[in-house]
Amino acid sequence: MKTRLATALSTVVLLGALASAGCSALAPLIPPSGSPIPPAASQLTTATDLGKVEINSYKGKRLDVVAKEPENSIKGPQHIDVATYRLGVTGLVKTPLSLTYGEVTAMPAFQKVTTLNCVEGWSVTYLWTGVKLKDVLERAGYDTGAKVVIFKCYDGYTTSLPLDFIVKNDILLAYKMNGVVMPPERGFPFQVVAEDQLGYKWAKWVTEIQISDDTNYRGYWEQRGYENSATVPGTL
Q1: Strands 206-212, 87-91: pairing kind
Q2: Model confidence over 202-212: pLDDT tens digits?
């Protein structure tokens, strides 16, 4: 594992000049997105279908086709029933939350063009639409003395990011890619847009956000030898 990791990370370093994580200034959607009706499972499109309707550029930036992103999740694509889905916000908060899809997407929406860089050596750039994670945390009244935000996912995957990184960089919890609702293969209902971080920090199918002071916490791949600090070389 360590040998493969070293090779993969070396590949990312070589890609630095080719695929640095660039993003547009964080911009609110105007008019606000309002309170969209949660799509039924039968209404969700596949990544392949999105190629017919998704946009391919935004403010002069080229966007990749969603269907071309490699699939490397630990248990394959997950299919979540949005009618029963709840996003938990737990841990060091004043008011633990259990939010529906509609409650999350009714919050102020923002857009960024951001590149996901994988340790396997590939990268993809999309226009992401979502809510600021710090807005979700503020709704729960998070402890500002906390250090870590842990993401737990429907397939059992976990990872974490420093709380101050999330707040200072306006990290998004996304529900759209290239202007269309995120398909199940890419993380519906929500994916963390962990810009300037390697792909294993971009949690998909997020079901719980836990605020913690455990700086020793290690997620799924971090427990298996990946660095907990996953900054893309040359971005910060």
Answers
A1: parallel
A2: 999 999 999 99
